[in-house]
Specification:
This protein is mostly helical. It has six helices and two strands.
Length: 134
Amino acid sequence: MPYLRNEVAKLANMNLETIRYYEQIGLIQAPARSEAGYRLYSDEVFEQLALIRHAKECGFTLNEIRKARLKAASGGIGMQDFIALIDRKALALEKEIEAIARTRAKLNELREGLLAAEKSSGMQGTIDMLQVKV
């Protein structure tokens, strides 16, 4: 059964502009058109949109998803390639988590230092803690 873009958006719980953008950048196939020029999407578009949504939830960028879909369609990527891509994404995520943890620790350290400086030495201690040169 063919669907109009607004029907696809409603059924897929997506913004109409998102679907338009995905089509524009080649993430979903351009649909057939009616005689009046309306886009007519097939049931397959829902599978494509679900795959895109899931991949985004896993941290993949739209560009990474597009490249993987193009390679998969041409047979240029196999299961081991997908697994390697997932492993690289997981490693990058671990590094990002570590960086965020370091930033949080620095913020906590700064907060504690500022609280201690405020109690003991007033404004100069705060400036010293922030390493601000006046």
